[in-house]
Specification:
Elements: E1 9-17, E2 20-27, H1 34-37, E3 43-45, E4 48-51, H2 58-66, H3 71-80, H4 94-99, H5 101-118, H6 123-126, E5 128-134, E6 146-152, H7 154-163, H8 167-170, H9 184-201
Helix pairs in contact: 3-7
Length: 213
């Protein structure tokens, strides 16, 4: 990641915004850009600099993810999930797990613990029902008019709900979708920053866009 040629920072203060440390800075002349170039983790955003959130050593994150899922965590995950949603291949809705959590909860905890030991969840839990949805105001005869929707089983969603708060520590900041506290606006700003940097430094650059159909 490169510094933004139009962002010349000197002094400011750091505060939090949606899980990210944001340094509000003043602007000055180009030579002051050097401090940003020395830190490859800095992302320019207007008159701000976004820094990766660091709240403790990596060992603490690994320990939190490596711990066995407790029944209370499982119940909290189920309670936080939206109801009346499309079903996965097993046909069991969130309401089913919510109604029978006392009976099913311990068995799910055992399954998640076994999955943690072997490194993967059972195949039926990982299988998805993929349904093509027609995009608004798009011609039905074209393949590109459809958005694929993968419907997973609720037992898998319960596990991902429990892990979701830790994902921002493991997944690179460039992955904005599906991670709490991130948005694609930062990626767009980064793209413009890279274009400006290429123009400013007179270097060649390529923008590579991939769309799966």
């Amino acid at each position: 990641m490169v510094a933004v040629p139009t962002l010349w920072a000197t002094v400011g203060q750091v505060r939090r915004r949606r899980g990210v440390r944001v340094a509000e800075v003043e602007t000055t002349s180009p030579p002051a850009l050097q401090w940003a170039e020395d830190d490859p983790t800095i992302l320019g955003l207007g008159n701000q600099v976004l820094l990766p959130l660091k709240e403790g050593p990596r060992e603490l994150y690994d320990e939190a993810l490596g711990q066995a899922i407790e029944l209370s965590e499982l119940k909290a995950a189920i309670d936080s999930m939206a109801q009346n949603k499309a079903l996965g291949l097993d046909g069991l809705p969130v309401e089913f797990y919510s109604a029978f959590v006392t009976t099913l909860g311990p068995r799910l905890v055992d399954m998640y613990e076994a999955a943690r030991s072997v490194g993967t969840v059972p195949l039926p839990s990982r299988e998805a029902l993929i349904v093509p949805l027609l995009k608004p105001r798009k011609p039905p005869a074209k393949v590109t008019s459809y958005q694929p929707l993968s419907m997973l089983s609720v037992d898998y969603k319960i596990l991902t709900t429990r892990l979701l708060p830790h994902m921002h520590r493991l997944i690179h900041a460039d992955q904005a979708r599906f991670i709490p506290g991130r948005c694609t606006a930062i990626n767009i700003r980064q793209l413009f920053s890279l274009l400006e940097d290429s123009t400013y430094n007179k270097t060649e650059a390529v923008i590579f866009a991939v769309n799966f159909e």
